[in-house]
From TrEMBL:
InterPro entries: Cadherin-like_dom, Cadherin-like_sf
Top-rank taxon, per record: Eukaryota
Source organism of the structure: Anopheles maculatus
Keyword Transmembrane helix among record annotations: yes
Entries under SUPFAM superfamilies matching the protein: Cadherin-like
Keyword Calcium: yes
Protein name, as recorded: Cadherin domain-containing protein
Domain Cadherin positions: 11-80, 81-200
Keyword line: Calcium, Membrane, Transmembrane, Transmembrane helix
Pfam families, per the entry: Cadherin (PF00028)
Gene Ontology annotations of biological process type: homophilic cell adhesion via plasma membrane adhesion molecules
PANTHER family assigned to the protein according to its UniProt record, in alphabetical order: FAT ATYPICAL CADHERIN-RELATED, PROTOCADHERIN FAT 4
GO molecular function, one term: calcium ion binding
Gene Ontology annotations for the cellular component aspect, listed alphabetically: plasma membrane
Length: 221
């Protein structure tokens, strides 16, 4: 066999386009390999143009299209958006009042029903004067968070003692093969209710005009 015939049997391969640097090809064997970590959420399909060329003179080549589809895997933890969420509720809100609905996302789940919410420690509070409340005070069960992320009043609110309550919250992906959780913070401000009626004070004094009485009215709370 002459040299030119041998050269025609030597084929080299290359990726012409479509790999986005995520795949490489062995020039001699044509084996396509992963070059770096793939991400379904970044790109889930590749259309790569593969060129095969011999070493003859002139060189002859052919092309083919290689389609690679990426299968999604549940590898991302859920997270709150925003990380710190805020709500307000009136001090006279009855038990069972909906205060807030927590919001979290997970790029790997198709439905929000796959996410479970819960409260966890630390749970802290400050009184109406901005002073930190001690750990032994009874405020940690004033609010209840159900699995869907809804936050309810759980018992009578006491703003004078607990004006702001900070609850550490967790969101868990129930479909993940291993535990995947995100952590956030819910700050609930309990607004004041005017519980004391206003007190009226007035004074009567004589006017210069006969038959008329003038008075001054002052309202105090």
């Amino acid at each position: 066999m002459d040299v030119s015939a041998l050269l025609k049997q030597i084929v080299q391969y290359r990726i012409q386009q479509g790999s986005f640097d995520d795949f490489t090809i062995d020039n001699a064997t044509g084996v396509v390999s992963i070059a770096r970590k793939l991400d379904f959420d970044r790109r889930n399909t590749y259309q790569m143009e593969i060129v095969a060329s011999d070493s003859g003179t002139p060189s002859l080549s052919g092309t083919t299209m290689l389609t690679v589809s990426i299968i999604n895997s549940n590898d991302k933890a859920p997270y709150f958006t925003p990380t710190t969420q805020r709500a307000e509720v009136s001090e006279d809100a009855p038990i069972g009042t909906l205060v807030h609905t927590l919001v979290a996302v997970d790029p790997d789940v198709a439905s929000s029903e796959s996410l479970d919410y819960a409260a966890t420690e630390p749970i802290t509070a400050v009184d109406k004067n901005g002073k930190e409340v001690g750990e032994m005070e009874d405020f940690k069960d004033m609010f209840m968070i159900d699995r869907s992320g809804k936050v309810f009043v759980n018992r009578r609110l006491l703003r004078d003692s607990f004006a702001v309550i900070r609850i550490t919250v967790l969101v868990t992906d129930t479909t993940a093969p291993s535990i995947q959780q995100g952590e956030g913070l819910l700050i609930i401000t309990i607004t004041d209710v005017n519980e004391e009626p206003p007190v009226s004070a007035y004074s009567i004094y004589a006017a210069n005009t006969p038959g008329h009485i003038r008075y001054r009215l002052r309202v105090e709370e």
